[in-house]
Amino acid sequence: MTISRDIVIVGGGPVGATLALALHENGIASTLLEARQRGTSHQDQRALALSFGTRLILERLGIWPQLSSKATAINTIHISQRGSFGRTLLKAEDHGQEALGYVLSYGALSQALDDALSGCHSVEVLHGAEATEILPDDDAATVTFNHEGIITTYRAPLLVLADGGRSLGDIPGLNRETREYGHDALVAKVQAELPHNHIAYERFTPSGPAALLPNGAHDFSLVWTGRREEVAAVMQLDDAAFLLALHQHFGDRVGRFLKVGKRLAFPLRLSRLNPVAARHLVVIGNAAQTMHPVAGQGFNVGLRDAWELADLIAESPVGQLGTETMLKTYADNRRTDTKNGLLFTDFLVNLFSNDVLGVSPLRALGLGALDLIKPAKHHLVRKMSFGPRG
Ligand SMILES: Cc1cc2nc3c(=O)[nH]c(=O)nc-3n(C[C@H](O)[C@H](O)[C@H](O)COP(=O)(O)OP(=O)(O)OC[C@H]3O[C@@H](n4cnc5c(N)ncnc54)[C@H](O)[C@@H]3O)c2cc1C
């Protein structure tokens, strides 16, 4: 059975759901297909690093009031490298911002988006609907999905893929470039001896960056990246040994570590689609680009994909939906933001993971110098907060 729709979004994660909501705000109807059952993601404790610009988007969508009490503000970012005194501090107050960013659980954001969508009559949301095939074509794109055992095909002038990049194989017309870092990230909640005081710590070590992000009244969210075998080894440790190893790795800035929650490790890769659009199909969010978690850029770039696509759809004349012209405009508009995010994170990883003799003192000098050059810091904070339009 093939049914016509105007806009179909595959994937109701934070990026797909944001797009549906932003379209609704513009008076535009859409259909959202989400493989998971409603509520499944609401308990996901994974910490997302939200930029200040992302908060403004969530405010405009009307869901920030529901989220603000669950989000932890980052007021200062402390950047250092192991084995050197060079460090730099970025402070929200120096840049006229209420905060530099926020830490929020994936589950809290998903729930707020799902709640908001449940009140939108213009959005048809199908939970438990798993797309199994996507085919771009000359005058429309089709998606075939299984919804509670019933196989259906929707055909639409615009199909948006926001599935996180994990579910579907190759799609004709799209090409994925992937580079494995050979590194894994370990994420967990930890408690330390000293309070976080809304400071996020980013520490560069020769084996990879590690971050402690304030999350809740007392906890930090840890992101510890390193060579695969190193991360595998610390994953094996019992809690007491892990906390000691973390203290050795991170230094003494927040005192000893007292408690660790469930640890999860995943491989790090740089991956992007080129192009991000084929006939009547556009790919956004993590499905379009995946970057190293250093500097917390990935989620925010994905959210800006959704926000800017909704804007473009709203501005496009009738009959332009999903046309080559419209999709080219989208791809052109998003190229710089995506490229900057990928280059910036890749640059940081390579610069700080390079242990060649002489490079480390230069980096220390760089961090020390950055701390003194106000315009450079201001530029960095604007770009991290708002992307290329900052
Ligand atoms: C293990 C892991 C840990 C991470 N940790 C962090 C972190 O600590 N901090 C941080 O800022 N970012 C982190 N990220 C990145 C962050 O999760 C992403 O930036 C963010 O989730 C991107 O949102 P998205 O909506 O594009 O994709 P996703 O969140 O992946 O959402 C995709 C949605 O599509 C649905 N879907 C998939 N396939 C189909 C299909 N065939 N049909 C219908 N629906 C489908 C999925 O069920 C899901 O709901 C992590 C990512 C991973 C994988």
CATH class of the domain at 2-45 and 106-177 and 270-352: Alpha Beta
Straight-line N-to-C gap: 46 Å
Oligomer: single chain
CATH-defined superfamily of the domain at 2-45 and 106-177 and 270-352: FAD/NAD(P)-binding domain
Beta-strand content: 25-35%
Bound molecules: flavin-adenine dinucleotide
Q: Which fold does the CATH topology of the domain at 2-45 and 106-177 and 270-352 refer to?
A: FAD/NAD(P)-binding domain
**Large-scale geometry:** globular
Low-confidence stretches: none
CATH architecture of the domain at 2-45 and 106-177 and 270-352: 3-Layer(bba) Sandwich
Structural class: alpha/beta
The count of DSSP E runs of length 2 or more, i.e. the number of strands, is 22
Please give the share of residues in helix. 25-40%
Put simply, the count of helices is: 10
Task: Kindly describe this structure.
The chain has 390 residues and is of the alpha/beta class. The protein has a domain at 2-45 and 106-177 and 270-352: FAD/NAD(P)-binding domain, CATH 3.50.50. It has ten helices and 22 strands. It has helices at residues 14-25, 52-60, 64-67, 106-118, 228-236, 239-250, 298-315, 324-353, 359-372, 374-386; strands at 2-4, 7-10, 30-34, 47-51, 72-74, 76-81, 87-91, 101-105, 123-127, 129-136, 141-147, 150-156, 158-161, 176-192, 199-205, 208-215, 219-227, 257-260, 264-273, 277-278, 281-283, 289-290. Strands 6, 7, 14, 15, 16, 17, 18, 19 and 22 form a nine-stranded mixed sheet that branches. Strands 9-3-2-13-21-20 form a six-stranded mixed sheet, covered by helices on one side. A four-stranded mixed sheet has the order 1-12-11-10, with no helix packed on it. Bound molecules: flavin-adenine dinucleotide.
